[in-house]
Amino acid sequence: MDAVVFDLDGVLVDSETVWDEVRQAFATAHGGSWTPGATRAMQGMSTPEWAAYLVEAVGVRLTPDEVAAGVVAEMERRYEAGPPVPGGAVDVVRQVADRWPVAIASSSPPALIRSFLEATDLVDVVPVALSSEEAGAGKPAPDVYLLAASRLGVAPERCAAVEDSTNGLRSALAAGMAVYAVPNPHFPPDPAVLAQVTVLRELAELPAALGSSRPSG
């Protein structure tokens, strides 16, 4: 293994429920009708994808651009006091980065990724931080993971990926990476997908699970 790629929401930021609250409230306020499968359907989607979904599937009476702007603005407001980072998450990133190059491959918009890096003082620790908006298709497509590996200069099959959701796990698997799951307790991943990856009880287990080998080359 030559590099480690982290998902952001649900792994390094406890934000999946915040995204869900904000999207539901925004949709309801603008004429939409929330459906039972909407939350899981949007997990991993890029901003353009979930904005279009809220218009087409949920019935929000705005354009996708207006939806994206409104939801992201509310998320930025929620992050003003700092993103909800679980205890120990930053230490795990630093421990891993001491041994391997690390990246973030997220479905969050670039502004929220920057907010996380700045709030946690990880700007200089994480050399590659990508939004799926920059990669084309969102998760479960592998695009953002493949782009992260490319930016790190590492073959995807030489990377480990850390994910929490069904679509995120499928994305990393499709990229050919060794996948570690920290299952989201609020939105548990599909057991059939979990059966294909290494499952951790908590993020703190990651450094030991990655093993003691150092990067090659």
Automatic annotation (TrEMBL):
CDD domains: HAD_BPGM-like
Gene3D superfamilies linked to this entry: HAD superfamily/HAD-like (3.40.50.1000), Putative phosphatase, domain 2 (1.10.150.240)
Keyword Phosphoprotein set for record: no
Molecular function, one GO term: hydrolase activity
InterPro entries, A to Z: HAD-like_sf, HAD-SF_hydro_IA, HAD_sf, PGP-like_dom2
Keywords, alphabetical: Hydrolase
Highest taxon in the source lineage: Bacteria
The name this protein goes by in its record: HAD family hydrolase
Record organism: Saccharothrix xinjiangensis
